[in-house]
């Protein structure tokens, strides 16, 4: 049969879309599996722990908190890519520990796996400092109580670059990271192109400052005379929020408190401050601490936004600070490479549920219902 001329264009189109017929793949030998060089393993692991400058600041500040510091000062240059310097007045580091300080899996906070169940310190893996030495140049200056002088030593790839040098030092520890991601071209480029990390660092320090009110915090850009975060030790949480976030935020906050119903087996306590209907902001501020750990919970944040959206007449976003205390054995801190999330296990009788075990969802529902009732009654 002859094909009519007007059918040709259709045929041409079909030819273009035709799925190519693959010739059978040539059967290859399986690729050989080999053991990665330790330096490669370490650098890959370091890239996960220290994802960007703000993750390094978080690790350093948490180390300072673990060292019982009363004052923590942060200086940042070029969004943290050139320099991050964290100085504290904590207990310092022993001279004899300096050689292994930046090796992977060296820590003063954990000995057995079981210790992890009741861990109170922010750190436990012995990985943060090591990671920094694989992706940056680290210098530590430290002095312990009763010493006449301190020591300074630099590290690369987990190792000391030289013997610790005696030096003048003030109480505590100063850790400096220079040239972060100097050996990770892609990461450095992405960070240089993206908005600089300094606002994220200021935000992080602000969060720490309103929770740890027995510690004074400061954060400034290198060379700047003024600090962008400056908090003093206080006994009032509201004063801390006022000094960090400003009078306009603090005056529109309501206190919230919640605990489980059964005081004899009390496992859950939550205190916080949440904004009232006069508070106006385009973006939500959600500061959540669980057992003094700064964590994130996207589900809770979204739920709170919904609670507020239904209650507030205008599309204003809330300010929420919440500190929740649970028994240590109910919180698993070892679920995220940057310790940004924790897993919670709780018996749900506290939430009037019928099943045997609840996880984060149970707590979430409880927190949201607390917030909902305060928002509804408080306005
Ligand atoms: N600012 C500091 N003051 C006193 N000791 C410190 C300080 N920073 C680090 N250290 C000591 O160095 C050790 C190693 O710190 P690093 O942050 O690498 O590990 P970690 O805190 O034990 O665990 P993680 O990797 O989870 O943070 C700590 O256990 C602590 O003993
Ligand atoms: Mg640490």
Automatic annotation (TrEMBL):
Pfam families xrefs: DNA_mis_repair (PF01119), HATPase_c_3 (PF13589)
Single biological process term from Gene Ontology: DNA repair
GO cellular component, one term: nucleus
Subcellular location: Nucleus
The DNA mismatch repair protein S5 domain, residue ranges: 241-347
Main location: nucleus
The keyword Ubl conjugation belongs to this UniProt entry's keyword annotation: no
Domain of life: Eukaryota
Cited InterPro entries: DNA_mismatch_repair_CS, DNA_mismatch_S5_2-like, HATPase_C_sf, MutL/Mlh/PMS, MutL/Mlh/Pms-like, Ribosomal_Su5_D2-typ_SF, Ribsml_uS5_D2-typ_fold_subgr
Keywords on record: DNA damage, DNA repair, Nucleus
Transport found in the keyword field: no
Sequence similarity: Belongs to the DNA mismatch repair MutL/HexB family.
Protein name listed in UniProt: DNA mismatch repair protein S5 domain-containing protein
Organism: Ilex paraguariensis (yerba mate)
């Amino acid at each position: 049969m002859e094909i009519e001329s007007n059918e040709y264009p259709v045929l041409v189109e079909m030819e273009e879309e035709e799925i190519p017929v693959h010739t059978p793949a040539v059967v290859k030998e399986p690729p050989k599996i080999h053991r990665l060089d330790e330096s490669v393993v370490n650098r890959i692991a370091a890239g996960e722990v220290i994802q960007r400058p703000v993750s390094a600041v978080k690790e350093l500040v948490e180390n300072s908190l673990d060292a019982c510091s009363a004052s923590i000062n942060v200086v940042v240059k070029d969004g943290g890519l050139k320099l991050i310097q964290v100085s504290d007045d904590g207990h310092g580091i022993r001279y004899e520990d300096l050689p292994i300080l930046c090796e992977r899996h060296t820590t003063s906070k954990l000995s057995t796996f079981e210790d992890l169940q009741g861990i109170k310190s922010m750190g436990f893996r012995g990985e943060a400092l090591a990671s920094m030495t694989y992706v940056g140049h680290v210098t530590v200056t430290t002095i312990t109580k009763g010493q006449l002088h301190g020591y300074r030593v630099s590290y690369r790839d987990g190792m000391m670059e030289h013997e610790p040098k005696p030096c003048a030092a003030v109480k505590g520890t100063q850790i400096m990271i220079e040239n972060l991601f100097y050996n990770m071209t892609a990461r450095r480029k992405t960070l240089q192109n993206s908005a600089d990390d300094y606002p994220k660092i200021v935000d992080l320090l602000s969060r720490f400052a309103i929770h740890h009110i027995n510690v004074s915090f400061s954060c400034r850009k290198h060379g700047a005379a003024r600090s962008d975060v400056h908090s003093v030790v206080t006994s009032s949480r509201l004063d801390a929020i006022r000094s960090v976030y400003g009078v306009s935020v603090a005056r529109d906050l309501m206190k919230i408190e919640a605990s489980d119903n059964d005081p004899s087996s009390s496992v859950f306590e939550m205190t916080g401050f949440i904004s009232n209907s006069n508070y106006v902001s385009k973006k939500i501020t959600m500061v959540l601490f669980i057992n003094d750990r700064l964590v994130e919970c996207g589900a809770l944040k979204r739920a709170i936004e919904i609670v507020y959206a239904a209650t507030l007449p205008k599309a204003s976003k809330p300010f929420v600070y919440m500190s929740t205390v649970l028994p240590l054995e109910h919180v698993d801190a070892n679920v995220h490479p940057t310790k940004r999330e924790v897993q919670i296990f709780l018996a749900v009788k506290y939430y009037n549920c019928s099943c045997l075990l609840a996880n984060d969802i149970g707590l979430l529902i409880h927190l949201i219902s607390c917030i909902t009732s305060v928002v509804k009654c408080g306005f």
